[in-house]
Amino acid sequence: MRDLQRFLIVLLLAIGSAFAFWNTSSDRQTIDVARLPPEARETLALIKQGGPFPYQRDGIVFNNFEKLLPLQPRGYYREYTVKTPGRKDRGPKRIVAGKEAEYYYTEDHYKSFRRIRESP
């Protein structure tokens, strides 16, 4: 009986740990609009109003070569520069917009993405 109790306790702890990891990793993959840097919120507003955009390459097709975003046909995603204070070049920050009005933020030039979560 004691062995069964120990087994159940270990099992419940393992399930709890797995759930905690899943929940945390899921949160790392999203970001609320309010938690974006001000420059990213400005870029998002420009995207939604259709511009004008400050960088010539804003709005070009993002090909998702890294395959970190959901797979879609070529041309589905567009990329936009998020100004990086103190940088003279475009910097590493971008917002990638999908045709279904989903938005992703990267601050490390496509090495990772977080889906932008908007309030209803």
UniProtKB/TrEMBL annotation:
GO molecular function terms attached to this record: hydrolase activity; RNA binding; RNA endonuclease activity
Q: Name one Pfam family in it.
A: Ribonuclease
Q: Does the keyword Nuclease apply?
A: yes
Give the keywords, sorted. Answer: Hydrolase, Nuclease
Does the record's keyword annotation contain Disulfide bond? no
Q: Which residues form a coiled coil?
A: none
Descriptive protein name: Ribonuclease
